[in-house]
């Protein structure tokens, strides 16, 4: 019965819009003229309007009771959802753009996110937690930039859930602070969460679980490059590289550590102050503070990865925090003093395309991935989930804390240095060769013990099933 009533409400809403269009030429949310039919009749747009009415309305009602900056930031949230609605309509009439075109296409939403972020800057506010939770929550709207499994983003449903986690830390502070002081603030915080979980998450799950569906026959999106700069508009973001993948073939490398790299690890283990001279990640290097890399645009730039490797070039070196949750270290060559020290367990680290470099991760993070690196050294304090080495040649990885899982996939030559706290973890290997694990001795002065992991196995059919055992080789 409830479902029938909801269906009737949707039909009545559609009829009302049709009447408004025919009599007054009204277009809700300022939609583009060619999108009227899409806006009125498309189930996904109707459902998005239901989402805004049901969930966003509650946040606005609570904000109006509070007023001031809380109401201001909530109106920006409302504006961001309106911007996303317009993009959803345009997507249905637009061919899938290239990377520059996608960045330009997402500019209206990106502009609102930047506006929200600017409210947090400057002098402290009595409602900082409100401003921060609302501004951080808007990153969930970047699910619309998902273009496929190789774009560097989580799937849309997971992306919305992960993005809300950034805001929930501050939302929980509001619940604690105003629990016995003002129910309006408590209602606002709860309504904001419901807007995303279950609101936006369930909407994406029902209509766009695999991301937006671009039109095959629609018009072409205008890229920032083809438009040219506007004297009144801010400069467009820098175009992404042709590809984040390198076309170079990995060179063969021995698993034995080179003298230079071993010296670096020995210095780290010695307890000496090795951080002196390391290159720090300053505030202006972080994505959130860079004018050319803010909000949604980052997600769009990652689309560059789908470009054919055969025509790709090595991109510019990067060491930056994207969307507040993912450290990206890319294309670093010969840099022995890379360091990440402002990190936490909700963030991940992705190291890609680096050669002859050393990275130190001084805080515990959720996950570390080392992809397509050659003669690369990575030292990390610990991981919550896993450290993954994939498609690498001659890398050295040292864990100074705990690591539940270390996986090595399609890698030739890998030295793993384990701490006593990481000996309880599991190591999985696949399609890899020359994998050596070094473990600390029993005493502080004892030498490291080196263990070569088997890369060849024998399979014998016995008692109705195959028995697999590693093949050991005597040293020459």
TrEMBL record:
Residues 243-255 have a biased composition (Low complexity). GO terms for cellular component: cytoplasm. Residues 223-303 are annotated as: Disordered. Residues 280-293 have a biased composition (Basic and acidic residues). PANTHER family: ADENYLYL CYCLASE-ASSOCIATED PROTEIN, CYCLASE-ASSOCIATED PROTEIN 1-LIKE. Residues 231-242 have a biased composition (Pro residues). Belongs to the CAP family. One of its GO terms (molecular function) is adenylate cyclase binding. It comes from the Eukaryota. This is Adenylyl cyclase-associated protein.
């Amino acid at each position: 019965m409830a479902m029938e009533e909801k269906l009737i409400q949707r039909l009545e809403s559609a009829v009302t819009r049709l009447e408004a269009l025919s009599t007054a030429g009204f277009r809700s949310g300022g939609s583009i003229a060619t999108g009227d039919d899409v806006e009125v009749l498309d189930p996904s747009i109707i459902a998005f309007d239901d989402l805004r009415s049901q969930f966003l309305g509650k946040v606005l009602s609570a904000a109006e009771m509070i007023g001031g900056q809380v109401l201001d930031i909530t109106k920006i949230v409302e504006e961001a959802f309106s911007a996303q609605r317009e993009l959803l309509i345009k997507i249905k009439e637009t061919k899938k753009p290239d990377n520059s075109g996608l960045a330009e296409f997402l500019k209206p939403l990106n502009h609102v996110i930047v506006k929200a972020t600017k409210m947090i800057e400057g002098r402290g506010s009595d409602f900082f937690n409100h401003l921060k939770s609302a501004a951080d929550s808007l990153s969930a709207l970047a699910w619309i930039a998902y273009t496929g499994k190789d774009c560097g983003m989580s799937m849309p449903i997971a992306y919305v859930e992960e993005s809300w986690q950034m805001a929930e830390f501050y939302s929980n502070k509001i619940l604690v602070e105003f629990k016995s002081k003002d129910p309006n603030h408590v209602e606002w915080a709860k309504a904001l969460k419901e807007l995303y979980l279950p609101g936006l998450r369930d909407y994406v799950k029902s209509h766009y679980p695999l991301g937006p569906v671009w039109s095959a026959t629609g018009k072409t999106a205008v890229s920032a490059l083809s438009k040219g700069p506007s004297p009144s508009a801010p400069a467009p973001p820098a175009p992404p590289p042709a590809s984040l993948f390198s076309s170079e073939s990995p060179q063969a490398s021995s698993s034995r550590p080179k003298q230079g790299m071993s010296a670096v690890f020995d210095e780290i283990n010695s307890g000496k102050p090795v951080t002196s001279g390391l290159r720090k990640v300053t505030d202006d290097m972080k994505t959130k503070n860079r004018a050319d890399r803010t909000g949604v645009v980052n997600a769009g730039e990652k689309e560059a990865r789908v470009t054919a490797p055969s025509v790709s070039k090595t991109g510019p070196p990067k060491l930056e925090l994207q969307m507040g949750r993912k450290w990206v270290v890319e294309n670093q060559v010969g840099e022995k003093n890379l360091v990440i020290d402002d990190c936490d367990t909700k963030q991940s680290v992705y190291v890609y395309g680096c050669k002859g470099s050393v990275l130190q991760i001084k805080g515990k993070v959720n996950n570390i991935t080392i992809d397509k690196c050659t003669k690369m050294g990575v030292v990390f304090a610990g991981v919550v989930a896993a450290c993954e080495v994939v498609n690498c040649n001659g890398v050295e990885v040292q864990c100074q804390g705990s690591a539940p899982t270390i996986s090595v996939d399609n890698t030739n030559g890998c030295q793993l240095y384990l701490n006593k706290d990481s000996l309880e973890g599991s190591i999985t290997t696949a399609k890899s060769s020359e994998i050596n694990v070094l473990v600390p001795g029993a005493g502080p002065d004892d030498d490291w013990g080196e263990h070569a992991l088997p890369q060849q196995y024998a399979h014998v059919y016995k008692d109705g099933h195959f028995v697999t055992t590693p093949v050991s080789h005597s040293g020459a």
